Amino acid sequence: MMPAKYAGRGAVSPKISWTGAPPTTQAFAIIFHDMDPALANGTEDVLHWMVWDIPATATGLPEAVPAGDLPDGTRQGRGITGQNAYFGPGPPAPRTHHYVFEVYALNAKLGLPATATRAEVLAALQGKVVGKGVYVGRFRAP
Length: 142
What we know:
The chain has one helix spanning 118-125, and strands at residues 16-17, 27-34, 46-55, 60-61, 75-76, 96-106, 129-140. By secondary structure, it is mainly β. It has one domain: Alpha-Beta Complex (Phosphatidylethanolamine-binding Protein), CATH 3.90.280.10. A 5-stranded antiparallel sheet has the order 5-3-2-6-7, with helices on one face. A two-stranded antiparallel ribbon has the order 1-4. It starts with 15 loop residues before the first strand and ends with a strand. The model has no long low-confidence stretch (mean pLDDT 93).
């Protein structure tokens, strides 16, 4: 279960760390989303956070405020709120939702502007992914 301090608008993003990236890694990207909803009766779920062009020397991101203290060159995209910031879990009570952090090791930076959409980020990932890690957490509103 994810702690409440990581939930909702204005929440603190959790510390994320990784090891074992392939030697060809040039950058990392993270996509954080809620798998449970189906937006507009389609296949899209709720995007909570996107971060890309994290330097290859990074082994994680620190716990941070919504705008985050991110490594130089890192870009933060817009999630469901339309803001370039972390947006924590917040399912309607009393439901429990599943939240996924996908960490991608890339053989090149994406080079996208902070205005890039999720579809643009996913398209840019194609052919660049050399490793992937996934963490699934759950959150239930009190």
